[in-house]
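Suppose you are handed a protein chain with no further information: no name, no annotation, nothing but its sequence. What can you learn? This example shows the usual starting point.
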Amino acid sequence: MNVLVLGSGGRERAIAWACWQHGHEVTVADELPGPAETQPDLVIPGPETALVAGVADECARRGVPCFGPLAELARLEGSKSYARRLATDLGIPGPRFACFVAGEADAAVAWLDGLGTAVVVKRDGLAAGKGVTVPADRAETLVAIADAADGSFVLEEQMSGPECSLIAMCDGWRAVPFPLAQDHKRIGEGDTGANTGGMGAYAPAPLLLDLDALTAAFLQPVLDHFAASGTPYVGFLYAGLMLTAHGPRLVEYNARLGDPEAQALLPLLDADLAELALAATTGALPPGPLPVRDASTCAVVAAAPGYPGSPRLGDLVTLPLELHDAVSFPAGLTDGHTSGGRVLAVTGIGDDLETARANAYRTLSDVDFPGMQVRRDIAWRAPGATLTSYAAAGVDIVEGNRAVTRMRGAVERTHGAEVVRGVGSFGGAFSAKAIASMDDPVLVASTDGVGTKVELAAALGRVRSLGHDIVNHCVGDVLVQAARPLFFLDYIAASRLDADMVAEMVTGMAEACEAAGCTLLGGETAEMPGVYTPGSFDIAGTLVGVVERRDLLPRGDVVAGDLLVGVASSGPHTNGYSLLRTVFRWLPMDVTPAGLDRPLGEALLEPHRNYLGVLSGALATGRVKALAHITGGGLPENVPRVLPPDVDADIELGSWPVPPLFRLVRDAARRSTTTSSTARSTWASGWLRWCPRPTSTRCGRRSTSRRG
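A reasonable first move is to predict its three-dimensional structure. Written in structure tokens, the prediction is:
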């Protein structure tokens, strides 16, 4: 067909683009050709001004199919008072309102006072999307009324809630809707500042609304009314809706396709727009819904400086060399320079809204002109639109409460009379009476995590040992200062809480605390989708212990010739798992490698040893000068932390039996880690203690650097 699109803005460029996609010859112009000229096969008017001026009536006189309503019907947009009265007569829900003619400012103020609530002030006629004022207070309201009273105007009860655009193709009897769209009228981000013609739109809007029900409530009654009057409505029909606490309410009617909604909706149409429009002019839209793509779009407008008031024109525009899954629709752009307030819109397309939005902004980043105004928050309401509960945001309070219920018994088994507040309180309370009898008590605290062992435990579905790990590691960290543990607090964070998994880990903590004579005082579970990848979690904890100041380790009398005694670990500790997961990433965890007596996964998940029992007797002798917990940094980094500056440790690797798992690691990593202290730590985990006794394994003068 030879299609004439009337108008020259972004909406009209989008209509033309949609027709071009199906091979039609398209002309974009501001006027109909003269009666003596060749007439188009189809006219699609874009702007409301042409419709109100009667372009559809003229086309009817010439016998040219026009997809747009007659001027009498276009009054739906041309007169807000007419539209509001008609909607009320048809029972379409909307705000309380009153209509006034020029000069009736006093009457409007009197009605305002009787209404007793905030209002919106609307000029009655066409105003290019900028004839609406939403005053912030009474003073602004009075000014808006005075300004509008130079012509007819309407006062409407101010409604609150997000807005959406319901737009349909109509053939006189049926309204067939596009997906819901949401546009952004305000110039400023966060929906602030002056109203504009629209700074961006996206579709489908992810609203929990029935599209057919909305069409039946807000569009079909209008079509039925006009059809019964003998003047069928043909063209786009647009209902601006506000989603209030009392349900959807009509904001306004438009007699054309929205701008910038057109730029968002037409790329979703999976059909020939011109063919559909031509069919509608004969009352024969195909049955069923509009065919649309299973995709999302996001249209972002670039506006000239000064828009919407007095835009500066004539600036040179730099356009993108490449469109990244996007379409660019020029509007106020002539010969490469700005010629209108809204210069262009870029519509990103994607399988989902996040992708479409990224494509739009990526392409728009290559557009540039002086003073360009672009809102960075188009579609910002979408993520929250479908949330009906806290759990819908990824935080499941019910699952968290279930976890507390499941773990409560295990936790409370560690409580004695010293626990004043425990599970369920905002903070654990522990009686200081437990240390009141001490001469000079020193509190020693340790906070730590389990490291990447959590990944292995999660993969194997065996997480109880992690509870032992975190408690025993912290016990070890206060034990090196000779402190006995008092109480422990845990922290578990996950992408999504699993009550059973949390309860299993906390039960492991409770078991470890019982074995250490420690109270599991409290803890925290945090659900953080977006921070942790799906299925991931982390575990950490804080332990507080106490020691008499006179017994605090390390002592300052470590000297050359003192004896180093090593206590074997139960297996690898913390940071070592970053190496282990790399070494064994292609070896199935249910395999029992040569040299091991159980599957590899079981060996790797052996809990961190509690060294309290084996060292308590030695500490009681008063002869232990220092203790070092050999964990992530291995012997080279942990031993120097408790030595005087002038004393070094003389340690002969291989002077103790290496457990099978450590031998396996050593052999697998030998080629790349023969000089790596981190690798050595995986088979040197455990304990070293110093006693004043000479031995062939000795302390001597040292010159190596020392870490605190």
